[in-house]
Design brief:
Elements lengths: L1 H26 L4 H16 L5 H6 L3 H11 L3 E2 L2 E2 L4 H21 L6 H24 L1 H6 L3 H27 L3 H11 L3 H19 L3 H34 L1 H4 L7 H16 L3 H12 L22 H17 L4 H9 L9 H16 L5 H13 L7 H12 L13
Antiparallel strand pairs: 1-2
Helix pairs in contact: 1-5, 1-6, 1-8, 2-4, 2-5, 4-5, 4-6, 4-10, 4-11, 5-6, 6-8, 8-9, 10-11, 13-14, 13-17, 13-19, 14-16, 14-17, 15-16, 17-18
Length: about 425
């Protein structure tokens, strides 16, 4: 089903691209100066892309996306009506994007085809909603002029883009669709809102002042893009610092090698299965990485670092020490709370702590073994503890994640 959905999206995008390029080559470019101006902007946006971090994965080329949206919503140039159609818009966007990604491909860092397919379908949707109705005058008759028209078009386009991103993400990862769609809709409020605003303002500016508005209105988004890259770099460094700190228990011999990273990766997979938001997943990942940090205060290490077999009082004492250490590192307060409460009965825990406790116990019980008997026996032990220690829903989500391919399918957290 997932493969079929992704194939449909890519197939439709491919057919639209072929039809647009063929039609444009056959009939020629209408208003080539306008096409060249927006095509150049899209190419520059692709050249300036940086595929790094989560924000970059969502919006790899915000300047190019804004230029494509502006071209799709362009109805006038310096007071004169434009005559480019939907197919020409798609052809110019695709051609300019392909030119811009060639250097990235040469360096071995080319974007995924899903990004281009998503761009094609989103731009096509915006152009189909705007161009025919605007040129015929029906759009003004139906919804009038002013901000409501802009908000209506942007809302539809943002919804289309979020749906496409969620479908492609679901097909690629198998994660639940509803949380993916929710996260994509939330992402529209970040760099997505800047892209939409720039695209609309640029189209309106060109309609009044001509093509001079293209570079003028590109500068604010370019500065915003640079700010997002800096924020992403800071978050990456912060995450690497937490990962390195979590390895302290392994280096000191308190836990098995790779334990914290395995728990973090599997916890995030379970969290996605439960439908946690991206912020909740970030808190969960940080807490899972640091869940054993309290063991550094022990004089005598726990055998193999397996806290799942400890008496409840001792496990809670270690968790409380870990919460104090986490607070000293400057992590968000929610992370320290999860670390501190991970050994409590599940009814007294937040969801993230319930996940960390179950996944940590699972990894302790299997002891690094990947054979089916070890995994099944560990899950059975967890199910026996669902009356007090482990939330049944979390244990069953863990079982489903493992059943889809086991721990080998879980993407590990890279070491710091």
């Amino acid at each position: 089903m997932r493969t079929w959905a992704a194939g449909c999206v890519r197939g439709v995008a491919g057919l639209l691209t072929a039809a647009a390029l063929g039609h444009t080559l056959w009939t020629g470019l209408a208003e080539p100066g306008i096409a060249l101006a927006f095509g150049t902007l899209i190419t520059i946006g692709e050249l300036a892309r940086r595929d790094r971090g989560d924000a970059a994965r969502r919006r790899p080329a915000p300047l190019g996306s804004a230029g494509a949206l502006a071209y799709a919503l362009l109805g006038q140039n310096a007071g004169q009506s434009t005559h480019h159609g939907v197919l020409q818009i798609v052809a110019v966007v695709v051609a300019a994007a392909l030119v811009g990604i060639v250097p990235h491909i040469a360096r071995g860092r080319g974007p995924a085809l899903d990004h281009l397919a998503r761009r094609v379908l989103t731009v096509t949707f915006a152009a189909v909603c705007f161009q025919p109705l605007y040129n015929s005058g029906r759009l003004e008759d139906w919804v009038g002029q002013g901000p409501y028209l802009v908000l209506f078009l942007l809302g539809l386009t943002a919804l289309c883009d979020a749906l496409l991103a969620a479908v492609l993400g679901w097909a690629r990862t198998g994660w639940p669709f509803a949380p993916l769609l929710r996260d994509e809709m939330r992402a529209q409020l970040g760099i997505g809102s800047a892209i939409c605003a720039t695209g609309v303002v640029m189209a309106l500016g060109v309609a009044v002042a001509g093509l001079w508005a293209v570079p003028v209105f590109s500068v604010p988004l370019l500065l915003t893009q640079m700010s997002f890259h800096r924020i992403t770099a800071i978050r990456t460094t912060y995450r690497q610092t937490i990962t390195s700190l979590a390895r302290a228990t392994e280096i000191a011999g308190y836990t098995r090698p790779g334990h914290s990273r395995r728990v973090a990766a599997l916890s995030c997979a379970v969290g996605r299965e439960l439908g946690l938001s991206e912020r909740e997943l970030t808190v969960l990942e940080y807490a899972a990485l640091m869940h054993d940090i309290g063991q550094l205060s022990l004089v005598d290490p726990v055998p193999a670092g397996a806290t799942a077999e400890l008496p409840a009082a001792e496990a809670r004492r270690i968790a409380a020490l870990g919460g104090e250490v986490a607070r000293q590192t400057g992590v968000p307060a929610e992370v320290a709370v999860v670390v501190e409460l991970q050994a409590d009965p599940y009814r007294d825990q937040p969801v993230a702590a319930r996940i960390v406790r179950a996944v940590n116990a699972y990894d302790d019980l299997v002891g690094g073994a990947r054979h089916p008997g070890g995994s099944l026996e560990a899950l059975e032990r967890l199910r026996l503890g669902t009356g007090h220690d482990y939330q049944p829903e979390v244990v069953e989500c863990l079982a489903r994640v493992l059943a889809r391919g086991g721990r080998a399918r879980v993407v590990p957290v890279p070491p710091g």
